[in-house]
Write a structure and sequence with these properties.
Length: 117
């Protein structure tokens, strides 16, 4: 899996999301949205990993669809954290860019994979 771009980017994103959760908990004393963004943000990579190890093409697509949905939920929570003042514009812009990149990669992979089912 070392050469898989979307998997590698999802691992990097997991680290960022984990650091964000720790920052929100310790610096901002925000726990609910921090937990929500952590759950959805770390789920992206976990589902990509499961997809790569899937038993079939349909299993691969199903797991990537879950990763795509989790990325969308993560984008929502990041926007909510920004809109409520827990993230600065700079913090939000940086991590949102990474999230959007994952969404675009997943969209592309899913579109190609669905054509080949």
């Amino acid at each position: 899996m070392g050469n898989n771009i979307v998997f590698e980017k999802s691992k990097t994103f997991t680290v960022r999301i984990t650091k964000l959760k720790n920052y929100l908990n310790s610096e901002k004393k925000e726990y609910h949205m921090a937990d929500q963004v952590y759950r959805s943000g770390t789920s992206i990579g976990a589902n990509i990993s499961e997809a790569i190890k899937g038993h079939s093409k349909r299993d691969f697509v199903a797991k990537l669809q879950i990763a795509f949905k989790e990325a969308g939920e993560t984008e929502y929570w990041l926007e909510s954290l920004f809109n409520t003042g827990y993230l600065t514009e700079k913090q939000y812009g940086s991590i949102k860019t990474d999230c959007i990149e994952l969404i675009k990669l997943l969209t592309s992979i899913l579109n190609t994979s669905k054509q080949n089912l």
